[in-house]
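Predict the holo structure. Ligand: uridine-diphosphate-N-acetylglucosamine.
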Amino acid sequence: MAEEILRITGGQRLEGTVTVNGGKNAALAIIPAVLLCNEPCTIENLPLVRDTQALADILVALGAKVTLSGSSMTIDPRGVKSAVVPEEYACRLRASYYFVGAMLACFHRADVSYPGGCAIGNRPIDQHIKGFEALGATVNTDRGVISARAENGLRGAEIYLDMPSVGATINIMLAATKAQGNTIIVNAGKEPHIVDLANFLNAMGASVKGAGTDTIRIRGGRPMHGCTYAIIPDQIETGTLMIAAAATRGDVLIRGALPTHMEALTAKLLEMGARVDEGVGEDSIRVRSDGNHRHVNIKTLPYPGFPTDLQQPMSVLLSTARGTSIINETIYEMRYKHLEEIRRMGGVSQIKDRLAIIEGVPRLTGCAVTATDLRAGAALVVAGLMAEGVTDIYNVQYIDRGYEHLEEKLRSLGARIERLTVED
Ligand code: UD1
């Protein structure tokens, strides 16, 4: 069977200007949220990646009309009558479970098959279910389907999350927007895309306050209307490009990026010896490096801590830094699979439970490697760019889930990267 790979000839310095896409994770929350109003909405700055396409496919399967024009998607939800997301759609990505919150709000019922997504550890949904139940729903998860019912409608409640789960915060926000009365989410996630969803809900007429802090207050049951809304820049794509710039001794100006979302990564790049400048009067970040990096320690944490989604590319940068770096992955228990591939490229690392201990080596050497999840794929791209020789990356479909035109962008900065079709 034929498959696509990315072939990178490493060692080229990245130089120039690049623009980031709209946020994938923000889009994944906002697309299902359109169901909450009974009028068309236009979402601008949408990243055209496999995950956003998968959610659009679900909307179409439910009866919505979806039209794309460049990076704008117009969704007309008026034809949606079904509250069932079948397995062949739900399994394509994790965010399919946002349809539970959105459909419960609209139809007081939802049947969504268990979501897919990256295999990076156990990913329970108990906090989502706790939230729906607090709002008055009954939830059954037998036979691989999340079945939620609220025959008498949803009513506002105070919900304390055991951990600031991004997904549970978003799902509860979606459901609570149409509940009768006030909902308070305590220990909520503070990620930028949670704030973006709140801004989108408010643009549709909802009343969501406090997003970006650990307490979100939602006044439910307000009339909702269609709107046009532009998605924030992608925090993780920005970070991946920042790391790639440092990894190649490059000088890259990243436009359309929000420096305030990047503070944890910026702090670590500065600590390593790279130079990071925030654009004055515009949303941009410039990263420069001479490649002479010191080791640093990283602990992944909910926002505003160091994002777990950047841990994998960052660990590759650390693999050639002077000294020993220690990574503590506190969010997921299985997010080091990429390091096995990096070892094949000459990297030296040990895994001890949640810790990865990385001994810096002078260089990585290209070889054939396989992506095991989305951000592992991004990490391997960074590795290929900084390695000596040729790196072939297999399983590129993971990368396509979250990065739009990645190879074109990197090529425009001077990388030697091409997409090839090879026989198995
Ligand atoms: C979102 C992001 C993902 C990122 C993650 C952490 C999207 C579409 N995806 O994923 O890219 O890596 O945030 O920043 O936005 N947990 C529970 N019970 C729950 C929910 C979560 O125990 O009900 C645990 C999970 O197992 C995990 C941790 O909480 O260990 C983080 O999960 P969560 O914040 O919910 O991440 P996601 O929304 O899945």
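The two ends are 5 Å apart (CA to CA). Residues 24-230 form a domain with the UDP-n-acetylglucosamine1-carboxyvinyl-transferase; Chain fold (CATH 3.65.10.10).
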